[in-house]
């Protein structure tokens, strides 16, 4: 009996110890406001440093990246699928540093925050901003699987290697938010240039890049594409909200530099008209055309991106303090309350960890740092607007949000001279701080912020040191400190057309090149690195050829790299982009710059080999300063 009792004791203790080791880390409920203030002050410094570490070519986590290129995370390698896949930095370098990836969307949002900080006095950021703009000019001209610059379709490509070459693998294409976000970030920098008298720099260096992106969004805005999570195809609230802001702000900016953007002025109202269709009456649906419940943190991200500090609580543009945006916040947060273990026992007036959407299965479906901080940032932005307006308006639409924080709230207008106004402000701020406390609780001890938080125990999941997470921390902290971004349109509600038109204006596109930045008195300026001819070039060949089951497409050619016409050394093409409507085979080969070779495609199946007809194809690998990639589309002959 004594032995049995001892066995039971150790068994119970062991199970309890195991449970404790894997139990959710409790939220820090006892922290005071000053504790959060101190942590955010320290974490903001860490986040700024981490972003610079992720930018080539000086960032310690961006080895091999071109100058100004933002690496989304140091944990990416060629085998990472979907968004990111938790691959180690050392493994990536072991493969090839140029296989890091940069997303137009991520880099534009990160640099939007850096430009805001620069305009507020962080002048040391100027060289890296200039280098980013220069890199985006180069990236705009890269031929890729979405297309090229001639018709603008290549601007819809979501990601590139950090060495500024095309990514040719299977992916969600196109994605139309990148050009709109990039245009907005460059316009924000353009306003600073104008304020300092650098009119020619704004007009001749920055505007040509913006011009291409505006042409793209004005032409293709009403066509479906993949959303910011890269898994839903349709018309996305986030993409269209970003498009509306870009077109609206660009029309004013264009006039300020002495040019016009007629398509901005004609298309912006129609985009705004379509945006109204996302409102369900209770929340903002994330996608008009497809998928899921429609409750999605991308709507929070759309709201904070289009925050205009001069605006009223306008429903049409879904301003942070608008009834629609607050109702959406309430419904979305509620969808995550019972979804994750780490959200257990959280009251209706308490913040919870937020994921992308309730149905998410990526890495098992977890909260994301950036989504949780977006929930806080919207509320801090709303508080800024209420202070500016000196009143809070509660409607039947926003009532559930307010009653969850102040049960006795009723519809009405409450001026800043009333007690209820201050009670509501305090309740909303405490609620917003709750989301930031979740981030504080689950951030690493060294301040590191990953992509996801395990829904079970709060440990970090997926990509580590995600650039977008750090930028979200910086933006949310600025809003918490009542630092608003520059306004992007006039105050007041814009006019929404009574009838929506599925319009689009054909764009004009031209390659923007930046050889150097002129010196700017009193400010550090990027020093252009001498342009070098690469030793090797990334050559991507894309062949349209219908095949039967078991049949492969290969390439063989006259050079050693292409097999010296030996079939046993031929290059096998990939089928991951093959479909019945688009039978695409492709391969990427690194070839010496300046090499000239002949080649042909062959069909290979067990028992036979078929050579394509016609004369040998000719391949001339460029040996030109700055040209690191070649993309060629061909058809079986």
UniProtKB/TrEMBL annotation:
Residues reported to bind substrate: 171
Gene3D superfamilies in the record: 1.50.10.10, Immunoglobulins
CDD domains per record: CBM20_glucoamylase
Catalytic activity field: Hydrolysis of terminal (1->4)-linked alpha-D-glucose residues successively from non-reducing ends of the chains with release of beta-D-glucose
Family from the record: Belongs to the glycosyl hydrolase 15 family.
Keywords associated with the record: Carbohydrate metabolism, Glycoprotein, Glycosidase, Hydrolase, Polysaccharide degradation, Signal
Active site residues according to the UniProt entry: 227 (proton acceptor), 230 (proton donor)
Name under which the protein is recorded: Glucoamylase
Originating organism: Aspergillus mulundensis
InterPro entries: 6-hairpin_glycosidase_sf, 6hp_glycosidase-like_sf, Carb-bd-like_fold, CBM20, CBM20_glucoamylase, GH15-like, Glucoamylase, Glucoamylase_SBD
Annotated EC: 3.2.1.3
One of the GO BP terms on file: polysaccharide catabolic process
Domain CBM20: 531-637
GO molecular function: glucan 1,4-alpha-glucosidase activity; starch binding
Domain of life: Eukaryota
GO cellular component, as recorded: fungal-type vacuole
């Amino acid at each position: 009996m004594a032995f049995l009792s001892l066995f039971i004791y150790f068994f119970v203790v062991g199970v309890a110890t195991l449970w404790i080791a894997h139990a959710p880390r409790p939220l820090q409920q006892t922290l005071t406001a000053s504790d959060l203030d101190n942590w955010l002050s320290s974490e903001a410094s860490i986040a700024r440093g981490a972003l610079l570490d992720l930018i080539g070519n000086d960032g310690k986590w961006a080895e091999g990246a071109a100058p100004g290129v933002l690496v989304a995370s140091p944990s990416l390698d060629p085998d990472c699928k979907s968004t990111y896949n938790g691959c180690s930095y050392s493994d990536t370098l072991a493969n090839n540093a140029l296989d890091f990836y940069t997303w137009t969307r991520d880099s534009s949002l990160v640099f939007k925050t850096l430009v805001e900080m620069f305009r507020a006095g962080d002048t040391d950021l100027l060289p890296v901003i200039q280098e980013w703009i220069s890199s985006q000019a180069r990236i705009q001209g890269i031929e890729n699987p979405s297309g090229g610059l001639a018709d603008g379709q290549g601007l819809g490509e979501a990601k590139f290697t950090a060495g500024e070459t095309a990514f040719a693998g299977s992916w969600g294409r196109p994605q139309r938010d990148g050009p709109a976000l990039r245009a907005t970030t460059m316009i924000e920098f353009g306003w600073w240039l104008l304020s300092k008298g650098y009119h020619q720099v704004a007009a001749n260096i920055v505007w040509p890049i913006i011009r291409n992106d505006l042409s793209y969004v004005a032409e293709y805005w009403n066509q479906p594409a993949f959303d910011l999570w890269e898994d839903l195809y349709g018309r996305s609230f986030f993409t269209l909200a970003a498009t509306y802001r870009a077109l609206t702000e660009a029309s004013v900016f264009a006039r300020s530099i002495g040019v016009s953007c007629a398509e901005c002025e004609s298309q912006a109202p129609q985009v705004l008209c379509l945006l109204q269709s996302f409102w369900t009456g209770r929340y903002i649906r994330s996608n008009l055309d497809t998928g899921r419940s429609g409750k999605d943190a991308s709507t929070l991200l759309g709201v904070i991106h289009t925050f205009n500090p001069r605006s009223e609580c306008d429903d049409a543009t879904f301003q942070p303090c608008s009834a629609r945006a607050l109702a959406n916040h309430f419904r979305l947060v509620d969808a995550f309350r019972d979804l994750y273990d780490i959200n257990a026992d959280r009251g209706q007036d308490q913040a919870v960890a937020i994921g992308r959407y309730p149905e998410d299965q990526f890495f098992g479906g977890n909260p994301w740092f950036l989504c949780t901080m977006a929930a806080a940032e919207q509320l801090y932005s709303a508080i800024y607007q209420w202070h500016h307006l000196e009143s809070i308006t509660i409607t039947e639409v926003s009532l559930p949000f307010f009653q969850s924080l102040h049960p006795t709230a009723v519809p009405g207008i409450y001026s800043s001279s009333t007690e209820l106004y201050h009670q509501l402000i305090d309740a909303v701020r405490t609620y917003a701080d709750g989301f930031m406390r979740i981030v504080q609780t689950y951030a690493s001890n060294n301040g590191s912020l990953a992509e996801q938080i395990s829904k079970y125990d709060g440990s970090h999941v997926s990509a580590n040191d995600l650039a977008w997470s750090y930028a979200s921390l910086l933006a949310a902290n600025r809003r918490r400190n009542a630092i608003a971004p520059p306004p992007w349109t006039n105050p007041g509600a814009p006019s929404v057309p009574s009838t929506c038109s599925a319009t689009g204006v054909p764009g004009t596109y031209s390659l923007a090149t930046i050889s150097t930045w002129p010196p700017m008195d009193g400010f550090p300026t990027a020093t252009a690195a001498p342009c070098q001819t690469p030793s090797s070039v990334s050559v991507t060949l894309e062949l349209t050829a219908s095949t039967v089951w078991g049949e492969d497409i290969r390439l063989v050619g006259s050079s050693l790299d292409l097999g010296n016409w030996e079939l046993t050394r031929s290059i096998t093409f990939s089928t991951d982009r093959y479909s019945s409507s688009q039978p695409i085979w492709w391969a990427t080969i690194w070839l010496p710059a300046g090499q000239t070779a002949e080649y042909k495609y062959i069909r290979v199946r067990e028992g036979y080999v078929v050579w394509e007809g016609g004369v040998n194809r000719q391949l001339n690998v460029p040996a030109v300063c700055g040209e690191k990639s070649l993309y060629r589309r061909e058809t079986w002959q």
